[in-house]
Amino acid sequence: MDRQIKQAIQTHATPFQSNADLKPIIGAIGDANIVLLGEASHGTSEFYSIRAELTKRLIVDKGFEVIAVEGDWPACQKVNHYIKHYNAAPDIKEVLKAFNRWPSWMWANEEMAELFEWIKHYNLAQEKKIGFYGIDVYSLYESMDEIMNYLKETEAKGADLELAKKAFHCLDASNRQEEQYAISAAFFSESCIDEVTKLLASIRSHEGLYNSEQEEDLNLKMNALAAKNAENYYRTMVQHDAESWNIRDRHMVEALEEIRTYYGDETKVIVWEHNTHVGDASATDMNDAGMINVGQLLREQNKKEDVFIVGFGTNKGSVIAAEEWGQNLERKIVPQAVEGSWEHAMHQAGAHNKFLIFTNDNKHLFQQKIGHRAIGVVYNPEFESYGNYVPSVVGNRYDAFIYVDQSHALHPIDVSPLLQR
Fold first, then answer.
1. What Gene Ontology biological process does one annotation of this record name (predicted)?
2. What are phi and psi of 336, to 5 degrees?
């Protein structure tokens, strides 16, 4: 099997030396209006810089208008306001201090700062400006703070404010600790599901009353959606790992659709998330565990030609990660991919950077289920072979795959004085 895969890669892969050589992928995307750009880790410089280059090309050449990422809505809104010239922040590094939830390095890094500055400059000449939004589900208390602050300042009738106060007081009983809330809700039935559900429904029914200037109406609705789904996520995570994963990925798809509706149903969107979210879960053993993900849902909900998924991988190098959840980041060595894995096959097919575009003519050659490396924010290289490879049919999981033979660690921007864990 290894020899067959190696030969197929050698026949159909295209070497690349610079990001400019990735132009064929832009061509293969065609008229798709949802492009998902993955990553095999949250701490690899090349994954960020290549996605940034592809994003620029999609914006300039194909009219993409929205970037949605695996990040919190409130923090990403600070960036969105900066690149759209809604505020007078002195520089992007000041704005990136908003990413004060661990792991901050995912978005507070030099690679993203360069992209944000590029978009800000690009937006100067655009009537409809490029937006940057976080669609993850973790911001339970941050989103409630945003809702309360906005309604206190702006709401005349007070109906939504009263519902927000009830939800806030219910959630605040857990001392703003998501883990404590999760335990209380799961084991003692002390949940706030009714309060946050009523709040979201009320805000949606009154959305015509809220100011659209600087997207204040969208911000209110999205924070309410994040709070509702975050409550469900934290309430479920203690007892059901698979279902809490599904709640998170369903939320990201729901959030994405809300943004597309706000911009217009035909809006073209770029999604930046880990391979485990964007690479179609039905082509992996996640499917056997009853888990779905963003890539699978978007493929199921849209026409085949409207969704294009790009996966990423590396053979060896370095990465930013932590030894345990909440600990300080480290620059870790990524060992050579284990024998028999997808990344090992890519390396054996030639020790250089390359990309594959899966087509009807070659997809049948990549139907073997093979281990495909996934590195998280918590990473222990010495135990890699035991839990960092997801069995995948790569030709079905992605529409294209970008491989970096030797990768390098991301360049974080320090926001540690503000870091919340």
1. response to antibiotic
2. -55, 140
Tokens of 362: 């070659």
Query: CB neighbours (10 Å) of residue 412?
Result: 21
Cα angle, residue 216 at apex, residues 214 and 218 outer, rounded to 5°: 110
Residue 420, pLDDT above cutoff 50: no
CA–CA distance, 237 with 242 (Å, rounded to integer): 8
Q: To 10 degrees, the CA torsion angle through 120, 129, 136, 115?
A: -30
* pTM, 2 dp: 0.94
pLDDT at 157: 60
**Average pLDDT of span 346-372:** 97
Task: Give the dihedral sign, CA 104/110/113/118.
Answer: negative
359's CB contacts (< 8 A; 6+ apart) are: none
Average per-residue pLDDT for the chain = 92
> Shortest CA distance to 253 belongs to which of 312, 293, 310, 199?
293
CB 231 within 8 A of CB 140: yes
Which pLDDT belongs to residue 415?
76
Integer Cα distance of 84 and 86 in angstroms: 6
Domains for the chain: give ranges and CATH numbers: 2-134+268-418 (3.40.1660.10), 140-240 (1.20.1440)
The span from the CA of 54 to the CA of 60, in Å, is: 10
Who wins on pLDDT, 241 or 303? 303
3-class DSSP assignment, residue 304 = helix
118 and 132 in contact (C-beta within 8 Å)? no
**Rounded Cα distance, 362 and 395, in Å:** 9
What's the pLDDT at 186? 67
Packed helices 241-263 and 216-237: angle between N→C axes, nearest 10 degrees? 170
> Residue 240 has what pLDDT?
76
